[in-house]
Queue: 2 jobs
Job 1
Amino acid sequence: MNRATAHPTGRWQQQLAPAVEQAAARLMRTWTGRPAAAANRARTKPDGTLVCDADTASEQILLSAIRAADPGGRIITEEDPATHHGHDGAATLWFIDPLDGTRQYLDGSPDFAILVSAWQHGAPVFSIAAFPAWDILALAHHDTLQLHPSVPAQRRPQPVHACYCDLPAVRECLPDGTAYLVDAFESTRALVDVARGSAAGAVVEMCGHRAWDIAAPCHLIGASGRTVTDETGKPICLDQPDVEARYLVAAATSTLHASLLTALENYRDPRP
């Protein structure tokens, strides 16, 4: 029997991929980057971040699909603080961000995403990241990665991204000819580009990131055969919303990953 259909993640893919497609279509209807976008009310949440009608609509589509696909799973979603507690003992934790990059979405930038990721015992088993405005979809179940569209092999050196930081030591450690891009994308796109083979690496400062922000990108990178850890080289383990890492370090090769870790180790962080 094919592994994809024998394991629940195969069934999850069949049920959740269409839901993500439906959520993406809903987001595109009110994205201000397209002409004649439909109305989309926004408000500021108590934590100071934005939420809009599109967040809520996308979330409801995803929640319905996940509950049907995995009735025993526990869902932790950015938009519902009530889900951030009481998840001990759950066999599967679902981390979802129905609209990652709400501010960018409202500003008309294409740099927004839908993130869905299932983890068991701190390790990822199923994830989807979709970028509706770019028509990019990446999906992983266990160590198998699917990319739509596929990314052709690149002969020239791929860039290294720095997100929300610009550390001279990172810039200086890169091989000759490697482009160093600071905040070219939000962190989700930068990390997924490492998984897709469109970037050689990424260093992301964790500026308030929670598990739903990084769960899917981290799984995609691991499923691609590349490496992502925290700034000490510790693998990412998620079993709650909070994330202890100060940085995420992703790289296509072990040599580059080691160089990035060394650069961060030599960086004198002014924070306590």
Note: The two ends are 53 Å apart (CA to CA).
Job 2
Amino acid sequence: MSLSLGLKCRWHREDCAERRCDRVSILFTVQEGSQLAIFNFSVIRAFQVIFSWWAMIHILRKIFDNSLIEFTSREAENILNGTSERNLCARWAPLLEKIATEGGLASYYADVEYNRKQDGKVKTILDEEWQVVSITCDLILHSRGNVVESDNLIAIEMKRSEHPEEEKRKDRMRLRAMTKSSYDGVWSNDGKVHPEHVCGYSLGYYVELVAAARLFLVEEYQKGELVNRFQHRF
């Protein structure tokens, strides 16, 4: 008896209560004999990659969520007093780094308006018209280039609700660019060498403060796309 060998993965996205969940289904057939071992290895490897990625995303979400909770708990008065985003991110950064370290990411740093990449060069992205522009993100969690395979983890942009819509649009565009794995394959984040332009952040967060409602509106970006919205009250 002989059966054909095949492996097909399909990703399904479903909205959960507060998070966007990924579910993978694997359709397969097996062939009798020596190819069975190859098939088993392929399935195991596929699940290793999938669960490794999903586990990291889960950890990073927890780090972001817990740091936001602690930040708003400690800095509520400062947040509501009209303090600048730069000051607020500077107060948030040490909490983000501490919680990341407690979560097993001791090689990573939370930096405010960090504008340098490998060899001290200015960080750049490609904008919507494929023009090279310098970039300074409000708050990032990264290894400062020391962990090439997973250098960039979380990028955060903060705005108060009263800011102009064009400024908010630029922040969102920046997060889309920073969370792409490549620029149409031209500059990639392959885990082997640093990309020419900034990309490859696992998660990007746009957080908009509505002070009158004691509320942060949060948008989560992955792979250049908006994947979730939620609110955090404090």
Note: Residues 1-41, 183-197 have pLDDT under 50 and may be disordered.
